[in-house]
Amino acid sequence: MTDTLTLRRPDDWHLHLRDGAVLRAVLPETARDFGRAIVMPNLVPPVVTAADAAAYLDRIRAALPEGSGFTPLMTLYLTETTDPDDVAAAHASGLVTAVKLYPAGATTNSQSGVRDIDRVRPVLERMAEIGLPLCVHGEVTDPAVDIFDREAVFIDRVLDPLRRAIPELRVVMEHITTKNGLDYVRAAPAGLGGTITVHHLVINRNHLLVGGIRPHYYCLPVAKREEHRLALRAAATSGDPRFFLGTDSAPHVDALKETACGCAGCFTATNALSVLAEVFEVEGALDRLEAFASLNGPAFYGLAPNPDTITLTRGAPVEYPARIDTGDGPVTVFDPGFPLHWRVAR
Ligand code: NCD
Ligand code: ZN
Predict the structure, then answer these.
(1) CATH 3.30.750.24 at 4-344, yes or no
(2) What is the mean pLDDT of residues 87-96?
(3) Predicted structure pTM score
(4) Could you read off the pLDDT of 242-266 as tens digits, one per residue?
(5) How many Cα atoms are found within 13 Å in the side-chain-facing hemisphere of 311?
(6) Which residues of 288-317 are buried (b: 16+ CB within 10 A; e: fewer)?
(7) Which atom of ligand 1 approaches the CA of 16 most closely?
């Protein structure tokens, strides 16, 4: 059996780093093995303008471990008052790599997001013109729509009309959790990619709810039925260039997860690559891990893959800390529920 695997250094195309004490604690977990990451802008207050993004980038750089080669790729949080000129300037200067669409109320810190997609049309048209991709949290917020159906309904009500209206806009359908999402990306003519998280390859909705409620498996979009998890595994391990890794590692301190109304988010930065390698091994697809984790993402964004490599070695189960301490309290690390045999050699 293969017991070492060398791949181009991976990137994370959807990551939450937060700010302050949590940023300082979680950033090294990603910077250790990943070359770059698309950094989500859902801070409080959100990263809306180029000036906000520049200031956040400075705070991230200041929190990086000495000598780290990690590159944060910044995003702007789209609001109904976003100025197309500010977005274009942020893109032209190389400051931002994408703009993020949160439907208002869809997830953590999305209150300032978009209620009426027509109101952001001028920004989206400008983005299409200049080739700046839109990252989409693809869930409707209509209270009448069941939470397990919100992704599928979003495709019909929002994403498809949007792509028909502005076909040149490059779009990433983020953290896909359904067969419907996978099929929609596959059927698109061009310019549509999809990220898949590590945790959605591992858990289905039973993990969340059977035998007691497990708040550390609660994330948005919420994990779906087993048939969807299996479809996600097939897509991720297929080598299809439209699918790439976006961990959506989303740290919340335990006090905010283990409570009557817990926050959504799984924190996977610490063991993401070990879990991924285990999944790809079980699927007989270790030879396609590099495409998913290191090649397809940069290709979509028009960037070169990282120049250097990482090596994973297979051996006795790897120990990971159950939680990472931050100045604001502990953050629990995602527990895949099976032993991890692949470690990143350092
Ligand atoms: C994310 C967060 O905590 O910021 N939570 C999550 O469950 N994924 C927001 C998001 O990406 O939806
Ligand atoms: Zn996210």
Answers:
(1) no
(2) 98
(3) 0.98
(4) 999 999 999 999 999 999 999 999 9
(5) 6
(6) bbbbbbbbbbbebbeeebbeeebebebeee
(7) 4
Tell me the C-alpha distance between 222 and 217, whole Å: 9
Residue 1 has pLDDT above 70, yes or no: no
Q: How far apart are CA 103 and CA 109, in angstroms?
A: 11
**Structural tokens at position 233:** 């595994």
Q: How far is the CA of 155 from the centre of ligand 1 (A)?
A: 19
Relative to the alpha carbon of 208, which ligand is closest? Answer: 1
Mean pLDDT of the chain: 97
Angstrom distance (rounded) from CA 162 to CA 183:
17
Tell me how long the chain is.
Answer: 346
Count Cβ atoms below 10 Å from residue 261 Cβ, excluding itself. 5
Q: Per-residue confidence at 228, pLDDT binned at 50, 70, 90? A: very high
Using the mean position of ligand 1's atoms as its centre, give its distance from the Cα of residue 286 in Å. 28
pLDDT band at 108 (very low <50, low <70, confident <90, very high): confident
| Rounded distance between C-alpha atoms, residue 242 and residue 199, angstroms | 19
- Residue minimizing CA distance to atom 4 of ligand 1: 108
Please give all residues whose beta carbon lies within 6 A of any atom in ligand 1, as ranges: 16, 42, 107-108, 137, 219-220, 248, 250, 264-265
Distance CA 265, CA 217 (A): 8
List beta partners, residue 210.
none
Strands 4-8, 309-314: parallel, antiparallel or unpaired by DSSP? antiparallel
Please, which pLDDT band fits residue 346 given cuts at 50, 70 and 90?
Answer: confident
Token digits of residue 156: 């019909």
CA–CA dist 164, 177 (Å, integer): 23
Mutate to test the pocket of ligand 1, among 42, 151, 249 (most ligand atoms within 8 A of CB): 42
Q: Give the residue among 28, 17, 22 at the shortest CA–CA distance from 69.
A: 28
Q: Three-state DSSP class for 36? A: strand
Query: Do 227 and 179 form a contact (C-beta atoms < 8 A)?
Result: yes
Predicted local confidence at residue 2, as pLDDT = 74
Ligand 1 probe mutation, 39, 136, 219, 254, most atoms within 8 A of CB: 219
Q: Is there a contact between 8 and 292 (Cβ–Cβ < 8 Å)?
A: no
